[in-house]
């Protein structure tokens, strides 16, 4: 259970602004409770404790953020097209600070890779990172986004525009192709989501 040392009033304002459901605490010691996805935050004097299966649903909103992070993404597809899923992880000097994996319906492998990159960048933005070093094992996606290769498919062109728009929201960014073994956690999360579907 992550414990975030913070001002509970500031944390409540941040969560409310993000549209998180808020309610009063269950005991005299609890200042308030908030729920989003598979996470529940409970505020006490000087701290907020996050519980649940996916604490990153709330911890990303509660932490001050800022700074630089490594962002890993991967898409998985069983068949091409076929059932697909995405995985992503954000790593800072504190270790893995947020990660996720989910199914994205029936897509091609390249579409799944773009979906993973978009979700990873949205999570990095929501976490409040100023600078991101993005890493993925899809050479096609990396080279298309960097402008080294053309995106001839209309859908992939739209994905590329969305990704570039998200990247421009950071003070600085890099995007690099890495071997699959370097991208192992994002790959695991995507495949776990497919296995659980």
From TrEMBL:
Keywords: Hydrolase
InterPro entries xrefs: RNaseH-like_sf, RNaseH_domain, RNaseH_sf, RnhA-like_halobact
Annotated EC: 3.1.26.4
Keyword Lipoprotein: no
Origin superkingdom: Archaea
GO molecular function terms noted in the UniProt entry: RNA-DNA hybrid ribonuclease activity
Domain RNase H type-1: 65-195
Coiled coil residues, start to end: none
NCBIfam families, per database record: RnaseHI_Halo (NF041306)
PANTHER family on file: POLYNUCLEOTIDYL TRANSFERASE, RIBONUCLEASE H-LIKE SUPERFAMILY PROTEIN (PTHR46387), RIBONUCLEASE HI (PTHR46387:SF2)
UniProt-recorded name of the protein: Ribonuclease HI
Source taxonomy: Archaea, Methanobacteriati, Methanobacteriota, Stenosarchaea group, Halobacteria
